[in-house]
Every structure is written in structure tokens, then in C-alpha cells.
């Protein structure tokens, strides 16, 4: 907005106010007196431009976006710890029950047993919040000796650890709150409640899905992939606390629609098929995240464009999605997930 308020423009306006019979050339007393003020004013205009962007939800960032969103009751999701499955056996390879609160280490991460699932299996919560707790699998080492323990394995991710919510995600929820206001438990309310739970990336709401008074909420995780049973249970519990009296709410995970891609490609000099396939997989993953819950089909043409724009690809032929050269339809409860990628030359 203030891009025209440059040092030169401001200084020239100031000099124009000085009578022409006074020396205004660079190096003159008048010029040297006005130039520092013009420089400060130009800096002020530049900072005003930044301030102007920070007061609007679509362009605000960081702590200023936090403050803007907080005015409407939308708050940034804080980092949460991963909850993993721990599998424990004794010296005879039989299930072994460890004490609740037992702490184990895997490389630089520490996990603590918080709940028994079944004999020999426990929920293990990372002591460090964030997605770092999702990444490693393998043998756990007890921080303090546990008599009778044979093996300790860190297995499935039950509830993914989440990093602090990004500006883009917070902005999306804020604008949704403002543009789709909730009123007494309408569909916008249920969508907002679901996405307030850490780990939920998006939600779709179907009112009256099983008759009067029923609501179905379909969720995906922050990677726009099907949610775990534990995350579904968390969303169900949270909505039950805030929903209007009388509503019957069912929360389910989206179903993953596997998309298998096959094609022949012409490679540019210096590229390998593996290089191209890896880069193409990243593009597909981003595209699938983009269309989850927003499109009713996976576009054959779009995937062809992504393949052609992949570094190292000069041309392609024989492109198929799930065996056919057509769009892949998505049902209301489906999101696309990457299946197999088969590229040939």
C-alpha cells in the first residue's frame, strides 16, 4: 500500500516545498537537513506496510496471527507428544507386564508407560512433544532395571505426536470460524470442534446421516490421511463435551482410496528412474493432501501434468490410474492415498 513512499519520493516532495531561489541541490544545507528526515519517514512507511499486513487474518503471521485469531476464540494448537505401542516379553518370550510409569529410551527419545493395553502391550508416551516421537521403531532400553524383563519393542504409532500448529493451519481454522460461523450446533460447529483436536487435519460433516438428530463427522489426520482409532476416540470424546443436548454424534475416520500410478517416461540426461520416481511421489503426496475432502475425484489430467513437471521427465506415455486412463472417483468418506508407483522407460 505504501510502496510509492520511497526515500526519493518523500525527499522530492519536501524539496518541492522549498522556494526555488534557495539552493536545494544535493550537498546543500537544505538538502542535508531534509534527507535524514525523509529516510526516517520512508522507514516508517515500510513498517506501516508490515503492520497493515499483520492486522488481517489472510496475511498475518506468528504472534500477531495468534492475537487476531484469539479475538474470535481460535487458539494455536500446541505441540503434543506421540503415544506409541510398547511390546514387552520376559526371558521366555511370554508377555511381560511392566510397571506403569516405567521409562525407556530409544536413541535420544524417552518414552513412559502410561496405560496397559493387554498383557505385554502398553501405551508409551513420548516425553518430548512433537512429531519427533513418531519417527523411530525398535528396541527400547529401560532407564532403570526392571526385574524379569526380556525384550522391549517400540511399535505402532497410536496417536501421532504433533508439532506446534503452523501459521497456515491456524489461519485456515480462523478463517473457517469467521466465514462459516457456528450457531447452536450447526454443521460448521461440528467441523470446528473436530479440527480443534490436536492431530486432526480436516473434517467433513454429514447432518441427519442416520435420521433426525444424528450427525456424522469424518476426520483425517494432519497429513490428510485416515485417522487412527485413538484419534477418532479423542474427537468423539471432545465433541460429546461441547455438542448440544440431544444430538447423536458418530465420529469415524475417512477411508483411504489407494491410487496406483503407472507410466513410461523419457528421462533427461543425468537422471535415474529412481530419482524421478521419488520426486514424483512427493508431488503426488502434496496433490492428494490438497484435494482431500475438497474434490470428488482424482484428476487423471492433473497427475499427467505433475509427472510431466517432475524434474528429469521429458515426456511420458501409457499413464494409468488404478489400471485405467480415467479419473478416479472419491466417495464422501474417501481420501486418496498413495499406492504403488510403477515407472518404466
UniProtKB/TrEMBL annotation:
Keywords carried by this UniProt record: Plasmid
All residue ranges annotated as the Baseplate J-like central domain in the record: 183-253
Superkingdom, taxonomy of origin: Bacteria
Entry keyword annotation includes Cell membrane: no
Segments forming domain Baseplate J-like C-terminal: 259-343
Cross-referenced Pfam families: Baseplate_J_C (PF26079), Baseplate_J_M (PF26078)
Transmembrane segments: none
Entries under InterPro entries matching the protein: Baseplate_J-like_C (IPR058530), Baseplate_J_M (IPR058531), Phage_Baseplate_Assmbl_Protein (IPR052399)
Protein family (similarity comment): Belongs to the Mu gp47/PBSX XkdT family.
Protein name as it appears in the record: Baseplate J-like family protein
